[in-house]
Design goal:
- The chain contains 5 helices and 5 strands.
- The protein is of the alpha/beta class.
- It has one domain: Transcription Regulator spoIIAA.
- A 5-stranded mixed beta sheet has the order 1-2-3-4-5, with helices on both faces.
- Helix 1 links the parallel strand 2 and strand 3.
- Helix 1 packs parallel to helix 2.
Length: about 120
């Protein structure tokens, strides 16, 4: 089991796909936040896909980091989509109240291709 957080960035046209592996928790969330700051603020990319399929654990701090990034891209008329089929993460999204936010600022998809197609 991987305790560290690994974030792989892939550019696809005007989008960036962040593939997150390992544990996305309060200890590792600052690394994801720094990545979002670089991508959104420095690179000015406002279409993001966060692929959580390779995460081993996600907590509310990790989801909060994603929610903050979603608000940032929404202010620039961008979009942030989450790719996740893990029941425990989807349940956490529901319990956190992010599901209601998903309808406005965040999309939840089962695979990267669906997430990309929604931003075309």
């Amino acid at each position: 089991m991987t305790l560290e957080l690994d974030i792989k960035l892939t550019r696809d046209g005007d989008m960036i796909i962040l593939t997150v592996s390992g544990e996305l928790d309060d200890y590792n969330a600052p690394k994801l936040n720094d990545t979002f700051t670089d991508v959104i603020d420095n690179q000015q990319v406002f279409k993001l896909i966060v692929n959580l399929e390779d995460t081993t654990y996600v907590d509310s701090v990790g989801l909060g980091t994603i929610a903050i990034a979603a608000k940032k891209v929404a202010r620039s008329n961008g979009a942030l989509n989450i790719v996740c089929t893990k029941p425990q993460v989807v349940k956490l999204l529901d319990a956190s109240g992010m599901v209601s936010m998903i309808k406005r600022n965040i999309g939840l998809f089962e695979d990267v291709e669906q997430a990309k197609a929604s931003m075309q």
